[in-house]
Amino acid sequence: MVTQGTHIDYYALTEEQKHELGCMIAADNIEAVNKDFQTFEISNTFYVRYGKRILDTLLAIVALIISAPINLIIMIVTWFDVGSPVLFHQQRIGKDHKVFWLTKFRNMTNETDSNGVLLPAYERVTKWGSFVRKTSLDELLNFWSILKGDMAIIGPRPMPTGYAGRFSQKHDMRHCVRPGLECPMHDTAIEVSWEARFDNDVWYVQHISFRTDVKLLGALVAETLWGKNREMRGQGSVAAGGDFMGYFKDGHVMTSDVIPEKYFECLAKVNPEAAITI
After folding, report:
1. Distances in Å between the alpha carbon of 29 and those of 41, 112, 248, 251?
2. Which of 90, 100, 256, 269 could form a disulfide with 242 if both were Cys (CB 3.0 to 4.6 A apart)?
3. Stretch 38-43: mean pLDDT
């Protein structure tokens, strides 16, 4: 039972408890968030239907050939850095919510706290892991997912399946296209956050074209080499503010850093063991 003044540390929760917390937030707010949403149609040009996939396939083949010796070096260094296995597999949400397996080289340890819960990503990323994240070398294996047709080069980043059910109808439109290595911000003046990233993904879905992809591919290369978000990637984050948890009733994105205390209290009532993480 939660007592007056109890505070539950989000990062000390298990993955199951975090998922339960996200479900509570969605159940409480998603209906209000979706109330005024108006759907839109995606462009059905030749490029969208065929051209983008053809170019992605050709570029993926070239990239896999060129990166083969680099991947071999990364595999060896990763083995010395974090041991076996050297590969990390995770289910991600793809186009039309189809689930696929994403494979990367491991760059985090499996360190846990005193309760056996995995430490936050930024505490488990090794020095080598931070380097491959900053330089996006950890993305090279994703060209295999592109070749298979699970991903594209430019597109919304694929989210772990644990985030399913949290998206508003507006932001869920990001799943109408294949996920990509990255979907660079079309307006670089906007500070990267979950809300800005999702809004940018929806913008991309509405403006997808050969011209847009060429422009964003250039932005992707520039971001990889010199971007201001390299440090964030190196720490194991894709946006500021912690994990994406859902929305407030006014439609703004809620992250794990700003979860109202009432949700922690509800979690502890239905899941008393969560109360030990004070």
Report:
1. 26, 32, 6, 9
2. 256
3. 86
